[in-house]
Amino acid sequence: MLRLLQSANSSTVIRERQIEDERMRDVEILLESLFMREEVTVRLIADCLYDVGSVNLVNRKVRSRPLNRFMKVIARRSKPIFRFFIIRWSKKNCPQLIANWLHSQVSFGPSEVVLPEVLAPGTESAHRLP
Prior knowledge:
By secondary structure, this protein is mainly α.
C-alpha cells in the first residue's frame, strides 16, 4: 500500500514538474515576443543606460579634466555601435535571464521555506517584529 502511494506521489510530482517546465517555456516565449515587438523600447532603455554608464565610467577612470571631456565625446560617438550590439545581445539573452529570475521568484524549495519561531508562552525573542 505504501509503495502504491509513493508511486502515485512520484507520478504527480513528475506531472507537476512537466507542467511547470511547460509554463516557464511559455513565459520565455512571451518574453521573446515582447522583446521583438518592443525593440524601440529596448533601444531607448539601452540608450539611457549607455548615457549614464559611459559618463560614470569616464568620470571614474579619467581624472584629467581635458582628457575627461575628450573621452565623453568619444563615448557619445560610439553609442550607435554599442546600441547595435546591446540590442542583439538583449534579444538573445534577456528573455531567458528574465524567465529564470521570475521562476526563482515563484519557486519555493525546501531550503527556502521560512518557518516561524516557536516560543514558549511568556518568552521574548530578539527577532520578533512589533
